[in-house]
């Protein structure tokens, strides 16, 4: 395995992805602000963040579809700016927006992308079979894409990104709008890829997927990387436990020895051992107990980590398909966004579509500390 020869490099293995100090603005919007992220071979990183946090922008930069205003991105040691073709050969991107061609069959779609990746004849045919099988597309290969369900089309879209066996895979909300079975199959396949050494960056709004993937977590918030670590580490460090009280109207002001936050009709009492605090919380309610609808103990979880770090709950009912996007024109400033040529692996060749309360500084894990 090659070692990291960069000045100041660790001398350890070259990471599959090294993002250092990357910033990107769209006019007045700082989509990314000095972002660091490293992904090692065989590692799955779940990229989390609210709508507009910068996840798609980060993936588009890594894929070389847009250029950073500042900072460096290396894919297996190749700079996406100075050696874009080499960098692209190493990666496969399945963007959020579906990039399949409905009038063509699944096989024709896959063949088209295999050719873009420089695969021909027998080797193209073999790779098509290889990518189709784990995504349960084998029986659908000769069906027109226009005749497939939304979830099946997304599987075709994902297969396109994997045809050239990239060593770094970028999956931008791959389970948006797919059913439970497809999600489970995709997660199993991503785990298999990682077990074989592929590095994966997987963005999602659906936190249980992160746990199912056994992924490390990176949290973007308003363009800044505010946390990076394993689920266990983050939960230990930031997973608030507490008592949650839901009222039928405006919640009362409670006098308690623990911090109390309010969100619409919900009060959250942050306390380390919530079971022991229940009686005191109830007593503090006094006459407003009549407006209490439910009261429950909240244990630390990835959900509470996300709330703690971003100051907001993840989008209500967030599950695949719920993400509301503002499809905007892509800012392909370097004009290289077609994914053609050297097998950029940009699954579809589609352009990226674009569409935040600051936690206290001491609550942040600086991304750079976790490389
Ligand atoms: N082409 C563009 N032109 C202008 N602003 C853009 C463009 N693309 C993204 N943005 C803005 O940059 C910020 C980051 O957007 P981005 O799409 O990266 O977020 P995201 O985390 O992927 O969101 P989502 O979860 O909704 O997909 C947002 O404020 C968005 O409005």
Automatic annotation (TrEMBL):
Main location: membrane
Family annotation (InterPro entries): AAA+_ATPase (IPR003593), ABC_transporter-like_ATP-bd (IPR003439), ABC_transporter_ATP-binding (IPR050763), P-loop_NTPase (IPR027417)
A molecular-function term among this protein's GO annotations: ATP binding
Record-annotated ABC transporter domain positions: 17-247
Record's keyword terms, sorted: Antibiotic resistance, ATP-binding, Nucleotide-binding, Transport
UniProt keyword annotation of Nucleotide-binding present: yes
Region (Disordered): 312-371
Record membrane topology: Peripheral membrane protein
Biased segments, Gly residues type: 334-348
Protein's cellular compartments: Cell membrane
Record's compositionally biased regions (Basic and acidic residues): 361-371
Superkingdom: Bacteria
SMART domains xrefs: AAA
UniProt record similarity statement: Belongs to the ABC transporter superfamily.
Protein name per Swiss-Prot or TrEMBL: ABC transporter ATP-binding protein
